[in-house]
Amino acid sequence: MDSNPIVPQDRRRRGIYLLPNLFTTAALFAGFYAVVAAMGERFEAAAVAVFVAMLLDGLDGRVARLTHTQTAFGTEYDSLSDMVSFGVAPALVAYEWSLHSLGKLGWLAAFVYTVGAALRLARFNTQVGVADKRYFQGLPSPSAAAIVAGLVWFATDRELPGETLRYATWVLTVLSGLLMVSKLRYYSFKGGLDLKGFRGGLDLKERVPFVGVLLAVLGFVLVSIHPSHVLFGLFLAYALSGPVVTVVQRRRRRAARRTPPPARPGDEEPPELGKPGAP
After folding, report:
1. Is the pTM of this model over 0.70?
2. Measuring CA to CA, how many Å separate 273 from each of 94, 265, 266, 277, 279?
3. Residue 265 falls inside a structural domain
4. CATH number of the domain within which 219 lies
5. Is the dihedral of CA 96, 99, 105, 109 positive or negative?
6. Which DSSP symbol is given to 190?
7. 103 lies in a domain?
8. How many domains does the chain have?
9. At 187, which helix (H) or strand (E)?
10. What is the pLDDT of residues 187-212, one digit of tens each?
11. Which ranges of 40-98 does DSSP label H, i.e. alpha helix?
């Protein structure tokens, strides 16, 4: 009997790719650390950990595409990691920092945010390959997490206690959760903007104009001046851009429906007899 049976090729290649899943695991660790740090009342470290999770989450997908290691397992693992890092962690950080002083209203606000993130991620997974890649439907969960964690980071940096901002935290947490499940459209920056030949999408495999590199450097400089203030302000402005973009696009569609299509050559009606211009 042959002691070394031939193993089918598809069975021998089973497994997961290490590199992109390492970034996903690191993002999951950052989200988990944010919860642990908040429980220890180290709120600044907890807020920073959420932003670190955002950075790592943005890298794992790009690394998978650059190395051609996209798998269904990686997609599901990334979604579960996002639920912890951008759904559970920001809600618990906000609750431990400020919302606990509101009692039942506090943990209900945290739950609204968490279920909003879960629904947002589930809807995104079902729309992959169908939705317009230039726009997100609803506020992305990393951006919502940046708003909640950014408020905590901003306030702790300014030495503002969470109890004094409990109502502002409640409103911002609930609104972030509702924006995630809304139908508002947000720019995804995946090739959707085109300003004089410079596309707003981020593709690491393509060449970009020199002005693109200059803008990236200026962005790093701007954030480094005061990270807590700048990041919180940027993501808050991005959250407010959704209603603006949606209203502008709706008005354009209504104007397009009201405007008749331009006449094509040969579509003109012949002049009637007896009128100027008639034969």
Report:
1. yes
2. 79, 21, 19, 9, 7
3. no
4. 1.20.120.1760
5. negative
6. S
7. yes
8. 1
9. strand 185-187
10. 887 654 444 443 445 555 566 666 76
11. 43-66, 72-82, 89-97
